[in-house]
Amino acid sequence: MAKGQQANKELTDVLNQLWRLDTNRLRPGTDYIISLQGRAGYVAQGSSYARDKASAPLFTYVNEDKLKSINTYLHFINLLDNYEVSTGVSETVTSEEHKENKLFIDSMMETDVMKCAHKYLVRKGLSQSDPGQFKKQLYDIWFRLYHRDRSGSEDSCGFEHVFVGETKFDREIMGLHNWIQFYLQEKHNHIDYKGYKARDSKDTPDEDDHVLNLQFSWKGLVKPIGGSFIGVSPEFEVALFTIIFLMSTEKKTSVVVKVDEYVLELVVYRHKGSIGTSYPTLLSSNHRDL
Questions:
Q1: DSSP for 116-147?
Q2: Whole-model pTM above 0.85?
Q3: In this predicted structure, what is the pLDDT of residue 198?
């Protein structure tokens, strides 16, 4: 662990509880197969070029039948085409999309992961015990539209940024920290995986890792490094980042936790009472220290 970085004990406990309850998490090597290939090099922010250290896609295989058979994944995937990718371009939420957002929240509330997160937040006095109130709170955190771009239109929301991805002035990729969106974009040849990011050769990830730091290009732009959970359910990510979001009112929260075998830095930026962005950065993984 990096110097001065202590894992937050209480948060570590609750996140490991969520991890254990995440029965919808897909199994590496069975439900999906990834191919890490080469280690990506340095790329400056805003660059449109990166040396490709991975000639093949990151995802070799994903069991889509399994994805579509799990409610939360199904409703999650339905949301991915609801957004304008460019910031500064107004979002309009149709009544159909509003319904899809609510269906996704309803489906998450039926999972043990979200029930556990809700209980914890009620205990901490951060959420109401009434499920209806909690759903409204989740809606505001993740789906309420706000101005990300200075031009003044409501062009963004937490869900879009974190899970779908956005571009800024056609110069920079923002967000896109979700493996399902990554896989689907890759399948449609919109994303080109450039390789994994690691600090040194001792830090090489493996195909079973549920957290990766990646480099990729999307819509003609390069993301120099993006942290992402791999294989976890949508409810796990929403629950985890909702808890961290509600822990504080600072502009930015960064916590170090140990979830399963991974030492992670979890980062949340707040934007007017909603999520600005949230993502994991893998600091180390147990089996690498052997």
A1: HHHHHHHHTTSS-SSHHHHHHHHHHHHT--B-
A2: yes
A3: 84
